[in-house]
Amino acid sequence: MPTEEEPQAVENENPAAAAEAAVVESGYRSKRQAGSNAYGDEPVPVVTPAYEPAAVVTTFEPVPEEEPAAVAVPAEPVIAEPIVEESGYRA
């Protein structure tokens, strides 16, 4: 008659939980979420503004209006005679 063995405890039932505990214990996540570069091994990115603010104009002077330059328009368009070439076809 076979004897029944007692179940043995499994050390690593959930490997993701063990990895999570290792990350929390190392302090990596808390340092990363704090926003500080506590390790100092990554370069700090230089933040440049998307645009530089323009100089502030404090006085507004009216711009003198100029009349547009006159454009010379011919009185009547010149129509050239159409060039007719003989095709050599005879009816």
> Quick one: biggest sheet?
none
Task: Count the beta strands.
Answer: 0
Total helical elements: 2
> Which consecutive residue ranges, at least 5 long each, have pLDDT under 50?
none
SS class: mainly alpha
| pLDDT averaged over residues | 70
Gap between N and C termini, in Å?
121 Å
Taken from the alpha-carbon principal axes, the silhouette is elongated
What is the N-to-C order of secondary-structure elements (H for helix, E for strand)? HH
The portion of residues forming beta strands comes to: under 5%
Helix content: 10-25%
Q: What's the alpha carbon Rg, rounded to whole Å?
A: 44 Å
Biased composition (Low complexity): 9-25
Region (Disordered): 1-45
What does this protein look like?
There is one protein chain. This protein has 91 residues and is mostly helical. It has a domain at 14-38. It has helices at 15-26, 28-34. The N and C termini lie far apart (121 Å). The model has no long low-confidence stretch (mean pLDDT 70). Residues 9-25 have a biased composition (Low complexity).
What is the topology?
Layout: H1 15-26, H2 28-34
Please describe the structure with a list of short key phrases separated by commas or semicolons.
91 residues, single chain, 2 helices, mainly alpha, 0% strand
